[in-house]
Specification:
377 residues; alpha/beta; Metallo-beta-lactamase, Chain A; 7-stranded mixed beta sheet; 26% helix; globular
Length: 377
Amino acid sequence: MKTLKKIIYSMIALLIGTIALVVIAGFLFLHFSPEFGGKASEKQRALYPKSEHFKEGKFINNGDVNMELSGGDMLKAIKGMIRPIPHSVPDENIETLKIDSLDIVQYGPKTRLVWFGHSSFLLQISNKTILIDPMFGNVPAPHPMLGTKRFSSELPIAIEKIPSIDAVFISHDHYDHLDYGSIQKLKDKVKTFYTPLGVGAHLEAWGVDQANIVELDWWEEVNFEDLTFRCTPAQHFSGRGISDRAQTLWSSWIIQSPTENLFFSGDSGYASHFKEIGEKYGPFDLALMECGQYNELWPTVHMFPEETAMAGVDVKAKTIMPIHWGAFKLSHHTWTDPVERVTKKAEALGLGIITPRIGEPIVLDSLIMSEPNWWQH
C-alpha cells in the first residue's frame, strides 16, 4: 500500500513539475522571443492620438466595428481548426513556377507581378522592384508547432536569391503578412519599408534602421520618384501577442505609376471604405483582393468570396485577382472554395478576374495566364 502511495505521489509530482516547466517555457517565450516584435516608443505613441483612427489607446475601424469573438464562438473556432476538415489542404504539394534573380534584375519596363501564394507578391513597376506582404516562412505563427505548413514546399525563388528591393509594403502585423524570419533575410536588401502606423516598431526591433521606415495613416501618401504610394483604409485588426491587440494600424495600399493604378486590399471585411477608395482614387487596372480564411464567426474582418467580387466593383477595378488563399489553412473552408466562388461571382458581375499559378509572372498590359484553372488539376 505504501509503495502504491509513493508511485501516485511521484506521478503527481512529475505532472506538477511538467506543468510548471510548460508554464515557465511559455512565459519566457512570450516575453523574450523576437517573433513577437517590438513596441512603439513613448515619442512615437504620442503621435497616434492625432489619427482619427486612434481612440482610448487603440486603433479602431470606421464605425467602431465590433471584432470581438464571444467565448462560445472562440471555442467553435478552435474546434474547427483542430478537427479534420475534408479538402482544407491540398492532397499533394502545390508545385510553384520558378523565377531567378537574373530575370528579376534584367526585367524590362512593363509592369508585372509574381504571386508567392497567400498575400505575398513581387511587383516590378516603373523599373522598380517591390515586395508586398513578404511572408516567405513555412508556418504563419510565432512557432512552427502553432500553425499548419505552407501548401508548397518551395517558393518561386529562395529569399537568399532575391536581389535588391526598392520598397516593401506591409499591410498589418499578423503572422501571415509580417514574418520575422523573412524580414531578417530581406532587411539588408531593402531601401525603404512602408507600413501603417505602429508597424515600424516591429521592424526596428528586428534591426531595420528607423531611417528606412515610413509609417503612414489612412489617406496619407508619399512619392517615390515617379510612383505614388497611398495608405488607404481596411476593416480588420492587429496584434502579435496576448496583450497588443489593436496597438498598430492595418491598411490597404495603392501603388500608382504615371500610366497604371494598382490596389492591394490587405486583410479586410466588406464595408463602405471600398466604395470610398474607388470614388477617390479609381479606377484601378488591377485590384489584389482578399479572398480566403473567412468564416461566419468573424464576418467583419474577412470577406466571403462573393463580397470580394463586390468589393472589386466598388473600387472600380477593371480586373481583380483573389489573394489570401492557396498557401495556408487559417479557417474551416476547403482550400479551393475561395477561388471557385469568387470566380463565379465575378463572372456574374461582368468583372474581369485572373487566377495565375504561384510563381507565374503576370504582365499587367496583357494579364495572360498559362493555366487559369490550375487548382483543378
